[in-house]
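quick one, 232 residues, struct below
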Amino acid sequence: MKTLDDTLIKVIIPAFNEEQSIGKVIADIPSVVNEIVVANNASTDSTAKVAAEAGATVVDQPIPGYGNACLKGIEYVASQEVKPDIIVFIDGDYSDYPEQLTEVIAPIVANEADMVIGSRALGDRASGSMTFPQVFGNWLATTLMKWIYGAKFTDLGPFRAIQWESLVALQMKDKTYGWTVEMQVKAAKQKLRFTEVPVNYKKRIGVSKVSGTVKGTILAGYKILWTIFKSI
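---
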């Protein structure tokens, strides 16, 4: 069994106009991580420059879309000669606590899980850090996944870890808002060992590109529900 010290870990951060926060996220990621990959998703600010100066590998994805950015990060990792044991995904807005990464990966390192979701529902969530549509949407989506697939999740949180080989086997496709729920639905259907660990959550830096607008909230909600039902 591998220990944390000999486990190769890479972090992928999808980022769109996060120049104010991306450096803080990178700085707080524990030193056990071997490489931080920032997928610069059509940013019009200095996100890429700040990320590179903070020590991250920056890959550009000019096509907008959360899933597109994640896929570009995966494509980069797949192109490297040495593949990681674990991939961690975390947002670039500093709403998560990157220092909790070791807690998120712990079940995988212990060979108790193939995928771990950092659950904001189980952790301490700062007042105002999630909008009502986000909270309700998470509840609805996780309830539907339980009814349809028997998968017991409490959150669609973006802070998550997965074994590299398991991630490849999922053959992720979603290019926009359905990325997180697609991963969880596919994990349930492929019988991956998954679990959740509590993670804390605070107000993000800047305005959310999804929950910060009515259009983004509606489109995200529609895409999440469509992703759940299309896989039945």
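Residues 4-230 form a domain with the Spore Coat Polysaccharide Biosynthesis Protein SpsA; Chain A fold (CATH 3.90.550.10).
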